[in-house]
Specification:
single chain; mainly alpha; Hypothetical protein af1432; two-stranded antiparallel sheet; 70% helix; elongated; HD_domain; transmembrane helix
Length: 428
């Protein structure tokens, strides 16, 4: 599984590098065959955009949940450049001083490539962000797609509002293509998760970049090169907001880690038990198509699934809650959910903990709404409890799970667990 994921990631990166190299080579050949016709004003326009693209390379940001790294400012400016260069008139603004550069997309893409390369050198020299070449390759390819889209649509005799819609559609075209590529590259059982993560996280940011690109294009006719930094400033603020959210997430992770170790330090659990359950839950959650955000909540809940044991007068032998009476299991789950709720801002985690002891037949027979995350925790915790720290007990642990199949445990979750294990037990 991990080898497959790594190989797929390498293939995607190599594909990006090859495609970006092809774009650069084509742009160089295009410019070399059309060296005449670029005025001083044209060069100033291209140089200014290259500068803003380079400076935007210092503002990379990792999107929360999905873990995708983007450069929103560089992306917006790169998408705006084809609009400014290839659009002879911005609707009713046809008398504005917009410099049209000839020779098609060649100078545009070469400018974007030089700006991205300069930004990478600047980022490495300043040391502010880590240089991520796949991100820069993706921006260059996006600019190429947008440029081709602009060339393919009519640009004369349209009103301003029509120009805006056409520009927005062309700026969004690369994002739609990337979504299709992601869905095609994903495993069939992971396509839903990829689509959910993209819609919840990447689409809003991509829409902001596309909208900013259109605004930069219209603003350039009136403000010149100052339009790019002025219009892109909200994207800079968005970056700081995302970083603040990431710091809050880090604080939450520290809180979860501290609480998770509490049961082990106090002797209620074997060392590494919670971590092993969390590892299994994440694998099963991915197999069942949970989104990146849902996986984070599931993993946190799995780490804290035994925190309610601190309310017991005396520990359960080896911390195996599966050996406790059903009423005691529910009491432990409720106590754990109460502890988590008192920390604040983790209601979704507390909900999973509250229902983790509810047997599966309660949903089938009585219509109880048991969250999928709770059912995953119940199965994975039972499996690890039955292992008792001995990987050689895998067959026995699976047999114990099958004894409760359909009554205590969700069959779908058990199937996903066994598929992910592949006959092997994850080692802590």
């Amino acid at each position: 599984m991990r080898a497959f994921v790594r190989n797929r990631e390498y293939a995607v990166r190599i594909g990006l590098l090859v495609a970006a190299a092809a774009v650069v080579l084509w742009s160089i050949i295009s410019v070399a065959h059309n060296t005449a016709g670029l005025s001083t004003a044209d060069l100033e326009l291209l140089g200014g955009f290259a500068l803003w693209i380079a400076l935007g390379g210092l503002l990379d940001v990792r999107l929360p949940g999905a873990g995708v790294v983007i450069a929103p400012v560089s992306l917006a400016v790169s998408l705006a450049l084809p609009m400014v260069v290839l659009w002879p008139s911005l609707g009713s603004l046809q008398h504005a001083t917009v410099h049209r550069v000839g020779h098609g997309n060649g100078p545009i893409l070469l400018t974007v490539a030089l700006g991205l390369a300069a930004g990478a050198v600047l980022a490495r020299w300043v040391g502010v962000v880590r240089v991520r070449w796949p991100v820069r390759c993706a921006i260059l390819i996006s600019a190429a797609i947008a440029g081709l889209a602009f060339d393919a649509v009519p640009s004369r005799g349209v009103y301003t509002w029509q120009s805006m819609l056409i520009m927005l559609a062309c700026a969004a075209a690369p994002g739609l293509l990337w979504l299709i590529v992601l869905l095609l590259a994903a495993r069939p059982d992971k396509a839903g998760m990829v689509l959910t993560d993209t819609v919840l996280v990447q689409v809003p940011v991509g829409a902001a970049c596309a909208g900013s690109a259109v605004a930069i294009a219209f603003g350039t006719s009136a403000l010149g090169l100052l339009a790019a930094p002025l219009v892109a400033f909200p994207l800079v603020l968005m970056r700081f907001a995302i970083h603040q959210q990431e710091r809050q997430r880090a604080t939450r992770r520290q809180t979860v880690a501290a609480l998770a170790r509490l049961t082990e330090v106090a002797g209620y659990n074997r060392a590494g038990h919670s971590r092993q359950v969390a590892q299994l839950c994440r694998l099963v959650g991915m197999r069942l198509g949970l989104s990146a955000r849902q996986l984070i909540v599931l993993e946190d809940a799995a780490l804290l699934h035994d925190i309610g044991q601190v309310s017991l007068d005396r520990p359960i032998p080896d911390g195996a809650t599966t050996e406790a009476a059903p009423l005691d299991q529910r009491s432990i789950a409720a106590a754990g959910a109460g502890i988590v709720r008192r920390t604040g801002r983790m209601e979704s985690v507390a909900t999973l903990l509250d229902e983790q002891a509810t047997p599966y037949h309660m949903e089938v027979i009585e219509g109880a709404q048991i969250p999928l995350g709770s059912r995953i925790i119940k199965v994975c915790n039972a499996y690890v409890d039955h292992l008792a720290g001995e990987p050689g007990r895998h067959a026995l642990a699976v047999e114990r799970l099958y004894l409760g199949l359909g009554y205590e445990y969700d069959p779908q979750v058990i199937d996903a667990l066994l598929t992910e294990l592949g006959g092997e037990v994850p080692q802590h």
